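In practice, a research group might receive sequence data for several interacting partners and want a quick structural hypothesis before committing to experiments. The following worked case mirrors that situation: the sequences arrive first, and a predicted assembly follows.
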Amino acid sequence: MSFLEYAPAPESTALLSLQSEYGLFIDGSFRAGSNPTFSTISPATEKHIATIASASSADVDAAVAAARRAYDSTWSRLSGRDRGKYLFRIARLVQERARELAVAESLDNGKPIKESRDVDVPLVAAWFFYYAGWADKLDHAGLGADPRALGVAAQVIPWNFPLLMLAWKIAPALAAGNTVVLKPAETTPLTALLFAEIVQQAGLPDGVVNIITGAGSTGRDLVNHPDVNKVAFTGSTSVGREIARSLAGTSKKLTLELGGKGANIVFDDAPIDEAVEGIVRGIFFNQGHVCCAGSRLLVQENIHDEVVDRLKARLSTLRVGDPLDKNTDVGAINSAEQLARIRELSDIGEAEGASRWSPACDLPADGFWFAPTIFTNVSTASRIARDEIFGPVLSILSFRTPAEAIAKANNTPYGLSAGIWSSNGSRVLAVADKLRAGVVWANTFNQFDPSSPFGGYKESGYGREGGKQGLAAYLAPAASSRGAVERASGAAEIDSGNVESLALPITNEGSSK
Amino acid sequence: MFLSTTGVLVTIDRLVSPASRATEVLGGELTESSLKSYLNGISGVDAVGLESRAADLGSRSIKTTSKAWALDRIISLIDLTTLEGADTPGKVRSLVAKGLTPDAADPACPRVAAVCVYGDMVPAAVEALGASHGLDEAPGGINVAAVATAFPSGRASLAVKLADTADAVAAGADEIDMVIDRGAFLSGRYGQVFDEIVAVKEACRRSDGSFAHLKVILETGELNTYDNVRRASWLSILAGGDFIKTSTGKVAPAATLPVTLLMLEVVRDWHRLTGEKIGVKPAGGIRTSKDAIKYLVAVAETAGEEWLQPHLFRFGASSLLNDVLMQRQKLASGHYSGADYVTID
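A structural hypothesis for the assembly, expressed as C-alpha cells:
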C-alpha cells in the first residue's frame, strides 16, 4: 500500500444519537405530520437514516398560527437585548454540539466531514453570533431609528448547505424580531431537526422557530399562506420564479437567492499555484453543489494549456469517497435526481463537442457518485457554459483581453458570483468594477463571512443575506414617520446646544451651510 | 514555465559543468540581466492562498498503518544535527551512535539519513561511523553532512567559503549544506549568488571527479517574502544545487509548512521542465511527529510520493527524532512511554 492511500480515518458516528422518527417542530414541540411520512437516506450508501414527517396544509396553518401567536405575545415585545441573549445561547449550543452536527450533516447530505466540520458548522455558529450582536443595534441597520420587524417569515431552504442556509435565514430574522416557519429540503431535513432540539435547549419561547418538513407542496403551502409577511427562498431559479409570480400583488416581502454560473477569471499574471487551488475550491468544494460555484473557468489564452495541465495534475490528488472519512475531499452527490441531471448535462457537453476529462478514481458501488470532471474546448454557446449544472463539472473557456473576459463573464442570465486571479491589484479592481455579480472574489473563491452581504443580479435573485444589508430583508422603517421627525429635530437641538456650550457665535443658519 | 525559451523539453546531463543547467533553461547567454528577467518572470505567490493550502494539507488525518509507515519514514529522512559552538568529538560520536541506533530497545528501528555537523567535526563523524559511512556505499550506512561557506551568516569572502567547503569534502563529507549570500540576493545581485553557488558546487568535486551533494540553504526567514523564496529556489537549482534547504536553524522563523510547500512546488515544476529531481530539506523548528507527518503529506501530494526518500527529502532536526521514537513506541505498545525511555545523544 502506498502512503498516499491513507489508511481509513472515519469520523465516529457514536456521538450522534438520532431518533428513528422525527415529527414536525411546531410551537416548541414535535408532533406527527398529517401527510404520509418519508425516509431520509445517506446519499453515500443509500441507507435509511430516519423517518421524517410530512406537513399537510393544515400542519402549515398550525405552524404559521404558532409563529403568529409567538410574534404577538412574546417575541415582538422582547427587547433587542433579550432577543440577542437567545441568539448568543443558540450560537454557543451550536459550538458545543459542533461535532454531532457535522457528522449529521455529512451523513444526510453527502458532503465531506472536513467541510461540514471546518466550514459549515463554524459558519453556522458565526452567523448566530454575528446577528446576536445586531439584535439590540437595529437603529444602526440603515433604516432609521426604531425599525420594526415584519412579522412571520416563511423560509424555504435548499439541500446543498442544509444547516448553514438555515442559519442564514433564521439568525437575521430572529435578530430583527420576526418569528419563523422554516422548511428544509426534502433530502436533507436532519440537521434542521437537530437544530429544533437546540432551540428547545436554548429555551426559546414556543413558536418563535417552527420547522416543518415535507416535499415541494409543503413549501408551496407555506409561501402562499395568507398570514405570512415575509418569504425568503434559496434554491432553483425555476422555483424562485414561481414564488415571485404567486407573491406578486401581495404585501409579502420577498428575498430570492437562486442559481448561478459564476465566472472564475484567470489572468496570465495570476499566482498560478494558488489560482489552481482556487479553481478547485471554486467548483469541487461541496461537489459543486454551490449556487455561487465558479463553474465557468475563463483562462487567458496564453496560459490556457499550462493551467489545464496543472489543474489535471491537481485533480489527480483529489480523494473521492466516504464523506465521513476525514481525508475525503469530494463526497457524494446529494440525490439520484441530481446525479441524473449532472450526467445528462455532461453528456450534452460531450455531444456538443467539448472534450471531457476526469482523473482516474474508483467510485463506490452504492450511493450517488460523480467523478470530478473538466471540459475543455467549450464554446460560449454550449449548454454546459450556460446552464447551471450544480455538480463537480467545470467548463473551461479562454479569453484574450480583459475586455473580452468581462464580456464573457457577464454574458449569462445569472449574476451571483465571480472570481478574478491576478497579481496586478489595479487590474483586479478595474475588472471587479465591471462584473455584474453579487460577489466578486479576488485571488480566492467561495469564502463566506457573516459580515459580508451575499446575493445576486438578474436571474440569480434579489435581496441580500449577511451583513447589515441582510437585516433589511427582515425589517421595515418605523411605522410612524412623525416619530422619526421628532427624533431628528431632537437631535438637531442637541447639536445646537453643543455649539452654544462651546460659546462660538454660530447660528443655526450658519451651521447648516 | 514548463518549457524552455526554445519551446522544447530540456533534459540535462548532470555530469556536465554545474552552470550548464542555467544555460540550457535560459537558452543562450547567461548574464546578470537574463537571469534577472527570468527570475522576475516567474509567477508570483499569493500568501493567503499558499498558507491556506498548507493548512489544508496539515489537516490530513494519518492513522494506524499509514502512521506507522510515516514514523519509520521520518526517521530515515532525518539529518540528525548538532551545530553548537560547544560541539566536541565526543558529542559527535554520541550523535553518530544515536543516528545508527535510534531506539536502543528496537533493533528494527530504521537509521537516520545523515548526521549534520560543522566542518571541523567531519573527521570525528567519519571515524565514528567507520564501516557504516555512506548512505549508498554501506548497507544501512548513513551520510556525513557538513555545513560550510561561513555558516550560518555566509558573511565571508568567496575564497574563505570555498576553502571551508573543500576542507569538509576532503575530510569525507558526503553532503555540503551551504548558505546563499542573502545580502546579495536582497540587493538584486542574483548573478553574484548564482556564481557563488556554481563555485561552491565546483569545490564539492572530489579527487575522483564525483561531487559531494550540495544543499543550498536559502534562509527563508531572512528572505522574508514568498516571492523571494520562490526566486531563490529557482536560482539555487539553476546554479546546480542538488537540494534546496529552508534554513540554518539559527534564524527565526526557520522551516514552516507554507515555505516548504512552496519549495516543493518549485522542485515539482523543475521536474516537469527538465525531468530532473531536486531534493528539499526543511530545517529548524520541526520538533514533533505530528508536524513532521504534515510535511510528509505535503511532499506526497505536491512533488509526489517518490520524493519520500533520503535522496530527495530530508528533515534537518535534532529533537524531532526522540518524539518520533516515543510515538513509535506508543503505536507498538498502545501506551505512552516517556522521555526516559528514549536516549539522549
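Before designing any experiment, note the following. Chain A has three domains: 21-258+468-472, 263-455, 481-511. The longest strand of chain A covers residues 35-41.
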